[in-house]
Design brief:
heterodimer; A: alpha/beta; Helix Hairpins; Pyruvate Kinase, Chain: A, domain 1; 5-stranded mixed β-sheet; elongated; B: alpha+beta; ATP Synthase, domain 1; 2 domains; 9-stranded mixed β-sheet; 2 helices; 9 strands; globular
């Protein structure tokens, strides 16, 4: 009996220390989430202005279809798919959900007879694809959980290059879209050609009164530059959204783990007390029995 | 005495400046652009260089300098908005590192690998020089 109560005490201790760890991770994830959300807010004015510039420019040049980054290719033969996952685990089903979505998306593209070039960012996604026997064409683990614009630029450069060179006729990104704290569905969006999808910017670019702008240099020239900046901005916001979703998923996972640990601690303590009580009762019984034998 | 107008400077990551200004001089792709109150609506591309912001007199009238590696400028409804990338304020500049970077860039410029490389390096040189210029005013 003494041995089992000792074993229980040991388990209580180990559960308590696990709880401490998960609790701390929960708090870290919370603070990282807040920081990322602050960045999302900070990026908004730039995005809005960029969208309004794009609107003014596209009006000035008439049709956007002739600009390299807006050109819708027909037929589309090869699609580059970038999957954004996290480098670290312990965030519940976050990575699994994204990978599942990505594989569905890839399967759908293949079913249409398109060739898919797979780029995967994040250690967890890479591991998942390799485990499934799929070797991504490009793997990168240098996207951190504090995305900077420079990071988005470096992530965007190969995508732009592949698209402009014609190595890919379309670029899709699969990432967790942070819509609200209740919803971060894994989403597949087309990054290039531009204009195919960018709900956030379309929403931000509220209709504005027409103005007769002067352009310096010519609108087409500005547009060429603006388009690539625009792509990077969209990608930057995608990365922010992915990181925010990751931290939120981690916070929820760690909250659950902490709650489970508390529950376990409670049950184990109960069990421990029961064992202790049983031992005392037994000792009393033994003493009483011994005393009775002497009479 | 010039009249003041609103000016905002934003980078992709955060807003950098907002306030009333008398004059803003920016490095346009076709030469310096100075914007005063009442400027016609304008959209322009910026080259690497220094943006000078002359704060309005009632806001202290100080001149702020910002080194940027490119961006866009927009005047709309009397408001000036500058979108800049890789902007550095005077206080955040590490001069030694920049001078090394400039040295490396100049060295690389001597043997550019391709036309495109040459152009990238040229614009990098200008952006580093702009940062050094801003730092030099300390």
């Amino acid at each position: 009996m003494a041995k089992s109560s000792k074993a229980i005490r040991k388990r209580i201790k180990s559960v308590a220390s696990t709880k401490k760890i998960t609790k701390t991770m929960e708090m870290v994830a919370t603070s990282k989430l807040q920081r990322t959300q602050g960045k999302v807010v900070g990026s908004r004015p730039y995005t809005t202005t960029l969208a309004s510039l794009l609107a003014a420019l596209s009006e000035a040049v008439g049709s956007l279809g002739n600009f390299p980054l807006f050109e819708k290719r027909n037929p589309v033969r090869r699609v580059l798919v970038l999957v954004v996952t996290s480098n670290r685990g312990l965030c519940g089903g976050y990575n699994a959900n994204i990978v599942r979505k990505a594989r569905e998306h890839v399967a759908a593209l293949r079913a249409e007879g398109l060739e898919v070039v797979l780029h995967v960012a994040g250690r967890k996604g890479i591991a998942a694809f390799r485990f499934a026997g799929i070797e991504p064409a490009v793997m990168r683990t240098d996207l951190t959980d504090r995305p900077t614009y420079a990071e988005a630029e470096s992530a965007g450069a190969p995508l732009l290059e592949a698209f402009l060179k014609g190595d890919a006729d379309r670029v899709d990104v699969v990432y967790a879209d942070f819509r609200s704290v209740a919803q971060q569905p894994p989403t597949a969006l087309t990054l290039l050609p531009l204009g195919s999808a960018d709900p956030a910017a379309a929403k931000d670019a509220a209709p504005q009164a027409k103005e007769d702008f002067l352009f310096e240099p010519a609108p087409a020239e500005i547009l060429a530059e603006l388009a690539s900046v625009y792509v990077k901005n969209v990608l930057y916001r995608m990365l922010l959204s992915a990181v925010a979703s990751e931290q939120l998923a981690r916070r929820v996972a760690m909250k659950n783990a902490t709650d489970n640990a508390s529950e376990m601690q409670k049950n184990l303590t109960r069990e421990y007390n029961k064992a202790r009580q049983a031992m005392i009762t037994q000792e009393i019984a033994e003493i009483v029995g011994g005393a009775a034998a002497l009479e | 005495m010039t009249a003041a107008f609103r000016c905002t400077v934003v980078s992709p990551e955060r807003p950098l400046f907002e306030g009333g200004v008398d004059k803003v001089v920016a490095p346009g792709a076709r030469g310096q652009i100075a914007v005063l109150r009442g400027h016609a609506p304008l959209i322009a591309k910026l080259d690497p260089g220094v943006i000078r912001i002359h704060r309005a007199a009632d806001e202290g009238g100080a001149v702020e300098r910002l080194a940027v590696s490119g961006g866009f400028l927009q005047v709309r409804r009397g408001q000036l908005t500058l979108l800049v990338t890789d902007a550095v304020k005077q206080d955040d500049i590490d001069r030694g590192a920049l001078e090394r970077e400039l040295g490396e860039t100049l060295e690389a410029l001597r043997h550019p690998k391709s036309d495109e490389d040459f152009r990238t390096l040229l614009s990098k040189r200008r952006s580093v020089q702009a940062k050094i210029e801003v730092a030099g005013r300390k």
